[in-house]
């Protein structure tokens, strides 16, 4: 009202010493009738249904998949070549920055759960829940060979570190080893009592390690198919294994489990030599630094933990806002990348435990991570049906 009714001398409208101002009938110039229905509605609180777009930090997005994307791999030779696989029963070979896919990995009849390049980048393998592994020639962009297991789902696949051999774990408790050059089956490994959830060759290629939902770790001779050691029972995991990683000297396997525990196993003796206890929920990923005796574990308890393996001690805890689903050491640098249920990709300094970068763009769970051979690009895939590429060249 801008002071209407106020009198400088304290009369005609001044009520008392309290300074309150009132209007007398003589002060009214005009009375305006207002229809309450024409007044704007009062906004008492923020509309929580309004969606706000977060910043997208990726410089390239691959949108070839029409459903959730579960697997990703970067070529060890071509820094722009990436493979991905998903719930839409499809895998793709694509080039960062390209308008579309370079090659569609056709022929699978179920979810493509795993993709991996051979050590020399010559071949790309795709494994599916249809029980089939297909191998593609990356230069000819054609199918090299097709391997069929028992028909049960392929959970994961790994290439031999020095040859064209493929190792794959199945839902039917079996492990399969194929020779790609000769397109033949070399061995099938039986012993687990439940789905084989993780596995790998040792870095020297001489031993195979596999972990299962039956809470056991098996150490195999790849030539004979015979078990060297079986690790289970106290003081080992009490629930299914989810992940494993092997030290660069091929001496120790580190395994994580649904029960939240992490154990170190001597592969020569088959004995548990240490237990890394700190997680309170399922350990989803484990990785060992190529340049030091450090390891990282990620759990649904929202923690990424950096460990000193020589001392079997905790170095630092990297807290997330939601569960950690995957992690990846970035080459020989001190940095570790993590993917989370909250859709964020984070970069951590393993020396200090500090989060040095958070990448936004995904709107759902991060399922897997891969890094380009030149360590300039980080690729993530998500249940939001996209693959995103982030620039990490500043970390070098």
Automatic annotation (TrEMBL):
Residues 1-21 are annotated as: Disordered. CDD domains: WD40. WD repeats lie at residues 62-94, 105-137, 147-188, 189-230, 234-275, 276-310, 317-358, 359-396. Residues 10-21 have a biased composition (Acidic residues). Coiled coil: none annotated. It is found in: Cytoplasm. Keywords: Cytoplasm, Repeat, WD repeat. Pfam families: WD40 (PF00400). PROSITE patterns: WD_REPEATS_1, WD_REPEATS_2, WD_REPEATS_REGION. One of its GO terms (cellular component) is cytoplasm. InterPro entries: WD40/YVTN_repeat-like_dom_sf, WD40_PAC1, WD40_repeat_CS, WD40_repeat_dom_sf, WD40_rpt, WD_repeat_multifunction. This is Angio-associated migratory cell protein. It comes from Vanilla planifolia. The lineage of its organism: Eukaryota, Viridiplantae, Streptophyta, Embryophyta, Tracheophyta.
